[in-house]
Amino acid sequence: MVTSFVQDLRRGLRTLAKSPGFSAAAIVVLALGIGANTAIFSVVNGVLLQPLPYPDPGSLVRIWHTPPPSGFPGLRTFAVSPANFLDWERQSASFEGMAIMRLAGLNLEGSGQPESLRGAQVSAAFFPVVLRARPILGRTFTREESETGGGAVAVLGYDLWKTRFGGDPSLVGRDIRLDGRPYHVVGVMGPKVRLPDYAQLWIPYDWSPEQRAQRTNHNALVVARLKPGVDRRAAQTEMSVISDRLARQYPEEDAGWGALVVPLRQDLVADVRPVLLVLLGAVAFVLLIACANIANLVLARTLGRRKELALRSALGASRGRLVRQLLSETVLLALAGGALGLFLAHYGVDAILAFLADQLPRSAEVGLDARVLLFTFAVALATGILAGIVPAWRLTKGDVASTLKQGAGRGAGEGDPGSRTRGLLVVSEVALSLVLLVGAGLMIRSLWLLQKVDPGFDSTNVTTMHVELSKARYPDPARRQAFLTQLLERLRALPGVEAAGAVSDLPLTGYQNWPIAIEGRPAPPVAEQPNVATGIVDGDYFRALRIRLVGGRLFTPADNADSPGVILVSESMARRFWPNESALQKRLTTAFAPVPREVVGVVADLKLSGLDVREPVPAMYLPAAQQPMRGIDLAIRTQARGAGVAAAAVSAVHALDPDQPVTNLGSLGEIRSDSLAQKRFGMLLLTGFAALALLLAAVGIFSVLSYGVRRRRREIGIRIALGAKTSDVLRLVVVQGMRPAILGLAIGLAGSLALGRVLSGLIFGVRASDPATLATVALLLAGVAVIACLVPARRAASISPTTALRDE
In terms of Cα–Cα distance, which of 705, 782, 771 is closest to 743? Predict the structure, then answer.
C-alpha cells in the first residue's frame, strides 16, 4: 500500500512537471485561497480559539452588574461598585477566588521623559488566586498591602519592564515614581499577562473606608475563578440569589441591580467575534471557489487523458487505483499551494495586526503557531481531495471499449463527457461569488452611510491630546482647576488658534453615566434614578467643536466654584425629561455632585460612543470650575489645516509642569476615523475576498468556455461552412456560457439573503435585503460573466472551416 502510494506521488510529480504552465496557474490559485484562509484563521485562532494564558482557563469568569432597565435603557451589563464586590466576595461559595480591578492612568516620572502609563488597581487575590499567574521576577501583592489603604508597591508588566527599564532584573526592590509618589517595585509579570485591557503595570486597589461603603459609584470590573466542580450556571444562580438579597438589604442603592456571570474568554472577544466569524466564512467561500476552479482545470486537462486511463483500466488497473492516481496530482498541487499560501499568510497576518492591533483583543497571541500550521496542512489536503474527486470520479466511470474506439475529436459537442460537471462547477463559483459580493456591497454602503452621519460636531482642524494630572502634585480640586485655567489661556494665545477647550471625554471615545433626580418630582431611590451621559467641560469646548447651541447660553467664567450650580443638557435629554416644556431654568441634582444645578442651556446631541448608535444618548455637561477633573481631553481648533499647533501645545503643558506627560496627541478627525476602524477593516477584507472571488469566477467561466470551444472546433467549423454568421457563433458560445452563470446568479441571490441576516449586526442604515445592492452586484457579476464569455466566443467566431475540418 505504501509502495503504491509512493508510486502514485512520483507519477503525479512527473505528470505535473510535463505541464508547468497548468501547474503554476493551479498553485497560484490555490495559494491565494489557502493563504487567505490561513491568515484569517491565525487571527481567529489567537483571538477566539486559544485558551487564555492562565492555568485552567475554563474556570475564569467575569462578573458584571446588570442595571435596572428604568435607569439604563438598552444597557445589559454595567461596571461594579466596590461595596457590592465585597458583599459578593463574602457571601458567594461558588468561587475559589474573586478580584476587583480598575484601570488607572499613572504618570511615570524621574526615569527620563515623563510617560503616562495604562495602569490597573487590583485586589490581592488577582494574581495568585484568580489568574494563578506567577511573576518572572519578585512577587505579587500581599493581602495586607491591598487592605491597608493601598500599599505603595507596584508590579510591572513585561513590555514596560523591557522597553522603559531595559529588562533590568535589579529593578525589583527599587523605587519608581508614579504620580509624584515613590512606589516599591516588588515584581515583574510575564509577557502574556495583560489583564485588564493591556495594563502596563499594577498597583494595589485603594480600599479607603469611603470606597468600601460605596454602592452607587460603579467604576470597577470583577474577575473570578470557579471552584472545581462548579459550573457557570450554578454560579449564576447563586449570584442572582445574592443580588436579590442585597436589593432587599439596600433598596436605596441596589434595588433592580443583578449580576451576570460570563466566561472571561467570551467576554474579552465579544465585540470582534461576529466580524471575525464572518471573515472566516468569507475566506472559506473563496477557497471553495478556488477548488471549483481547479476542479474545472483538472477536468478539462484529464479529458485529454481519457484514452490513457481507459488503456490502463483495460490492462487491469482498478477504478480506485485510477482515482487515487488522479487525486495524488491535485493533492500535490494543493500542498504546493499551501506552502506558498503559508508564505502569503505570514505577511497577511502582519498587515492585519498593523491595521487593527490596538482594537483587537489578545492580538499578542496572534501568529503562525503549530495549530495554524496543522490547519494549513489540513486545508491543503482537503482542498486537493475536493478539487480532484469530482473530475476523478467522473472520468473513471466510462465504458472502456467505447472510449478506446472513440476518436480524439468525436463526441465533442455539448454532450461531451464532463460538460454537465463543468457547468455545475461554474454555477457554484458564480453563486458563491455573488454571496461574497453582496456582503461586500452591504459593508461598503454601510461604511459610506456612516461616514455621512452628522456626529453633532465639526472635526476639521481640531487638534486633540490628553493630560492626566498627578494625584501627588494636584491633590485638591483647586490646584487641578488652576492648572487647567492657565493651560487654556496659553493655548488660546498660540498663533493660529481659534478656540481651545477641555472635556472629560471627547466624543466617540465613550462616556460616564451619572444618576440624576429632577427637582420638584418625587425622588426615586438612587438605584432607580435615570442615568445620563455626563461630561465635564471648560473653556471654549463647544466653540472648538462647533457644537450648536439650541437654547439658553453656554458656560461663562462667572460659573465658578463660588457661584450657583449650573448645567447644560442635550436636546435628547431635554425631550426625555421635559417633553412638553422648556428645559431652561429647570433644576436637578446628581448623586456624584449633589449641589442643585439649574439648566442654563441646551446644546445639540453628539455621537458619544459611536457613529452607528442610532438613537441619541441623553447627555449633560458640568462646568469644570464647579467639578474639577483629573483626566483632561483637550480640543484646539486652528484657523487652517496643519497649523502645526501640536508641538506648541505640548510645550505649553510642559511650561506649566515639566513632569506632566501628554498622551493621545492627534486630531478629532483621526478619532472619528478610528471609530470606524473595525468596520473599515471588515469591509476592506470582505471586499478583497469578494474581488478575488469575482476574478476566480471569471477565470472559471473563461476556462470552461475556452475548453468547450477547443472541443467543438469541428462542429463550429461545420456551422460556419453551412452559412452561420459571426453573430450566430458569438450568440451560441455566449448563451452556452451564460446559462450556468444565470443559474448561479439565481442561487447566489437566495444565499445572499441568508448572509444578509448574518451581517445585520455589522451594517448600518441599509437593509440586509437591500434591492439596490442586490441588483448592482448581480449586474456587475453578470457583466463580468459576459466579458469572460466574449473572448472565447470571438475566438470561436474566427475559426476557419477548412482548417477545423482538416485538423479533424
Answer: 782
Closest listed residue to residue 223, CA positions, set 339, 355, 127, 302: 127
What integer pLDDT is reported at residue 723 of this predicted model?
A: 74
Residue 779's CB is within 10 A of a number of other CB atoms, namely: 11
What is the C-alpha to C-alpha distance for residues 306 and 312, in angstroms, rounded to an integer? 10
Coil vs helix vs strand at 2: helix
Buried-state track 200-227, b at ≥16 Cβ within 10 A, e below 16: bbbbbbebeeebeebbbebebbbbbbbe
The CB-side HSE value for 167 (13 A sphere, CA atoms) comes to: 5
**The model's pTM:** 0.82
C-beta separation of 519 from 577 below 8 A: no
Q: Which residue has the cell 474568554?
A: 265
pLDDT given at position 415:
47
Q: How far does CA 48 lie from the centroid of its chain?
A: 11
Tell which residue, 518, 531, 502, has the closest CA to residue 630: 502
What is the reported pLDDT for 83? 93
CB of 273 closer than 8 Å to CB of 48: yes
Instruction: Tell me the sheet residues that pair with 466.
Output: 633, 663
Separation between Cα atoms, residue 122 and residue 138, nearest integer Å: 17
* DSSP run (H or E) holding 429: helix 419-451
CB of 761 closer than 8 Å to CB of 443: no
DSSP class of residue 444 equals H
- Distance (Å, rounded) from C-alpha 143 to C-alpha 240? 28
pLDDT number for residue 335: 87
State the alpha helices, DSSP H only, in 618-676: 645-656, 668-674
Q: How many other C-beta atoms are found inside a 10 Å radius of the C-beta of residue 802?
A: 11
Question: Is 316 exposed, middle or buried (CB count within 10 Å of its CB: 0-12, 13-18, 19+)?
Answer: exposed
Nearest Cα to 93, choosing from 235, 248, 262? Answer: 235
Contact 167/91 with Cβ under 8 angstroms? no
Grouping H, G, I as helix, E, B as strand and the rest as coil, residue 643 is coil
Q: Are strands 221-226 and 60-66 parallel, antiparallel or unpaired?
A: antiparallel
Contact 345, 355 (CB under 8 A): no
C-alpha cell at 676: 470606524
Q: What H or E segment, with its residue span, contains residue 665?
A: strand 663-667
The one-letter code for the residue type at 318 is S
How far is it, in rounded angstroms, from Cα 218 to Cα 128? 25
Asked whether 685 and 279 are in contact (CB, 8 A), the reply is: yes
**Residue 191 to residue 362: CA distance in whole angstroms:** 12
State the helix-helix crossing angle for 677-711 and 20-44, rounded to 10 degrees.
Answer: 160
How many CB atoms within 10 Å of residue 670? 15
What's the rounded Cα separation, in Å, for the pair 80 and 219? 6
Task: Report, as ranges of residue numbers, the positions in the chain whose pLDDT lies below 70.
Answer: 1-9, 12, 71, 111, 148-150, 300-322, 357, 390-419, 642-643, 707, 711-712, 801-808
CA dist., res. 569 & res. 278, Å (int): 40
| SS3 assignment, position 44 | helix
d(CA 800, CA 806): 10
Angle, CA of 754, 758 and 764, to the nearest 5° = 115
Q: Can you give the three-state secondary structure of 564-604, one letter per residue?
A: CEEEEEEHHHHHHHCCCCCCCCCEEEECCEEEEEEEEEEEC
C-alpha grid cell, residue 711: 472541443
User: By three-state DSSP, how is residue 413 classified?
Assistant: coil
Let me know: does 263 contact 7? Beta carbons within 8 Å.
no
| 63 Cα distance to chain centroid | 23
| Largest separation between any pair of C-alpha atoms in the chain | 107
Judge if the upstream peptide bond of residue 196 is cis by omega within 30 degrees of 0.
yes
- The amino acid occupying position 167 is G
Give ∠ CA 327-333-337 in degrees, rounded to 5.
140
Nearest to 548 by CA among 615, 456, 463: 456
